[in-house]
Amino acid sequence: MDINRVIIKPLLTEKTYALNSLEPKQYAFLVDPKANKYQVASAFAALFDFTPIKVNLQIRKSTKVRTGTKFPGYSKLIKIAYITLPKGKDINVTNEEPKNETKKVDVNKEKSVATAKTKGTLKTVETKKDSTAKKESK
User: Is there a contact between 64 and 72 (Cβ–Cβ < 8 Å)?
Assistant: First the structure.
């Protein structure tokens, strides 16, 4: 089997988000139904440059689905791989940016505020904290 066709896509559910937050981290992937544990482990190692600790496979068999006609339909057969990562390792399966604690400052916004202050069109609004601080200082 071709190594590029073994892992299809990551499985993102409430259960998998809970597994991601634990240590050691576990991730779930939809894999080809014909793939075995060794093929899944080698495909994961090729994609993410390290080997997993453990690979568990689960098969969800096809079931009857209501179609609204006389003949029932069937859902697809799905194979899920739960992959346990080594301690200290993490991967990014979603396309989200990592959360940084530093704030990004919008330069254009700062320039527009500065020009508005110089022109005198920007009005400052006093809050209750500012007004009480001024009264106490007098």
Answer: yes
